[in-house]
Amino acid sequence: GGHVCATVVRRPDLWGDRLLPPPSDLAGAMLYVSPVLATRARGGKPAWFTDEVVRMVFGRRAAASVPSPLHEVLDGGDGHPDVPHVLVGCRNEVFGLTLMDTFFASEEYSDALDKLGIDSRYRSVESD
User: Fold this and answer.
1) C-alpha distances in angstroms, 82 versus 30, 49, 87, 102, 114?
2) What are phi and psi of 124, to 5 degrees?
3) What letter would DSSP give residue 36?
4) Is pLDDT of 116 > 80?
5) 3-state SS, residue 35
6) Which stretches of the chain are assigned E, i.e. beta strand?
7) 1: part of which helix (H) or strand (E)?
8) pLDDT confidence of 101, banded at 50, 70, 90?
9) Is pLDDT at 128 greater than 60 in this prediction?
């Protein structure tokens, strides 16, 4: 959901290859209703945990190529459509398993977009 959206909206080449206009021409805003994931550790969070889970899910070889939209923005990447972004997250995303929160980065992603000058807002809801 949100992670896939954050990944593909930054890749106008993928849209052009399919003879589609860029996302900014198709949408007046982006609404993310599932999390944007940080597939690499950040901010003192345990790198071993994120690395192992990504390897378990995607396999050792593919794990290195799994995109982390948060890090792409933090590392100065560009390509985000200059349209408003609204990200919705849950306060108890993984049923209270706080270690899993290391992957959920919608709020940080929203802040990073905002710092790039892209209107972005994060809203948190109670439900999981």
Assistant:
1) 10, 33, 15, 27, 11
2) -110, 140
3) P
4) yes
5) coil
6) 30-32, 85-90, 120-125
7) none
8) low
9) no
